[in-house]
Amino acid sequence: MSMLDSGLEEREPRRQATYDEPQGAGWLMFAGIMLLIAGVLNVIYGIAAIGNSNFFINDQKYILSDLKTWGWVTLIIGVLQVVASFSIWAGNQFGRWFGIGAAALSSIGALLSIPAYPFWSLAIFAVDILIIYGLAAYGGRHQPV
After folding, report:
1. Which pLDDT score, from 0 to 100, does residue 142 have?
2. Burial 39-60 (b: 16+ CB within 10 A, else e)
3. Band of residue 118 on the pLDDT scale cut at 50, 70, 90
4. Calpha distance 113→48 (Å, rounded)
5. How many angstroms separate the CA atoms of 93 and 33, rounded?
6. CB burial class (10 A; 0-12, 13-18, 19+) of residue 143?
């Protein structure tokens, strides 16, 4: 006697995926997206700092130099992050290592700007560490389709 014959309802059938997603693909997508967002924000903040925008406080103490210098540093790091995000999505090993390098530079820059903007710097540092983890742990397993 089967379950259908006894009047009991059949449980929901198992769903099978039509494709197998490689392990860590979500981390790679997260790393690329967060690197792109951080890069765009760094480009915007770099341009604002170079132009002496009222958004930034001019009399803050920086580890090295002044606001305009940090604006250029932030702008260059932001451009590197944007390029790295597209390189990650290309799926090769160069993109993985370039992304790790860009996130590492961003995290160092964030730590150096702690005296001026502590909460923003720590938030960017935390995101950069997650990006580095995702690329280091799962970046080598990604195969382009």
Report:
1. 47
2. beebbebbebbbeeeeebeeee
3. confident
4. 15
5. 18
6. exposed
